[in-house]
Amino acid sequence: MISPDDAMVKIGSAGKGFFHTTVRVVDEKGNETAPGEPGELLVQGPHVMKGYWNNPEATAETIRNGWLYTGDIALREEEGFITIHERVKDMIISGGENVYPAELENVITAHPGVADVAVIGQDSERWGESPFAVVVRKDENLTETEIMAHCDGKLARFKQPKGVTFIDEIPRNPTGKPLKRLLRDQFPGPAPE
Question: Which of 60, 117, 140, 172 is 20 to 30 Å from 19 at the Cα level?
């Protein structure tokens, strides 16, 4: 929860755990992440759900050792403020390394010829998954080569997109989040090697 005063200073933050709520940000092994390091957001408290109705498998996957695994990738600041970054299912695992699409999207969006972008994972025989950028052009002359060159040196090699495609509009849900499931269906790959 975030107060109106904090919301003006911590723009984009979801706030801190509220009354009778404990929140943690953990890595894949369940260890608390350092401030500013991404991990999955866990929530615990007496008001957190007990489970899914008639679905013990989903309950066991979501609630472990009394913690609700939200499926959100989040960052925790030193003061305890939590910023939700993206969904765990949108994370790309390339060659055993975690690739957060939002990081690539921020780099690509900084290109003056880009109006919008969503990064998805595509199957890769070599890497398991590879990043693939779906871009809406601001400049109609923008090419895949220019996007790739723009990313070079700004991202680690394993994080750079292996391919780029251009579309007229990124599909979004009513809250404005990209519908990456639809993009994965539309551009299933395999990823260029």
Answer: 60
Q: In the block, which residue shows the tokens 């895949």?
A: 144
C-alpha distances (whole Å) from 24 to each of 18, 40, 41, 84, 100 are: 13, 8, 6, 12, 19
Beta-carbon contacts of 153 under 8 Å, excluding residues fewer than 6 positions away, are none
pLDDT tens-place string over residues 51-65: 999 999 999 999 999
End-to-end CA distance of the chain: 44
Separation between Cα atoms, residue 157 and residue 141, nearest integer Å: 26
pTM summary value: 0.72
Using one digit for the tens of pLDDT, what is the confidence trace for 107-133? 999 999 999 999 999 998 888 999 999
Q: Which residues pair with 19 in a beta bridge?
A: none
Token pair, residue 74, equals: 């989040």
Structural domains present in the chain: 4-88 (2.30.38.10), 91-186 (3.30.300.30)
d(CA 155, CA 161): 10
SS3 per-residue string spanning 136-167: EECCCCCCHHHHHHHHECCECHHHCCCEEEEC
Inter-residue contact 161 to 147 (CB < 8 Å): yes
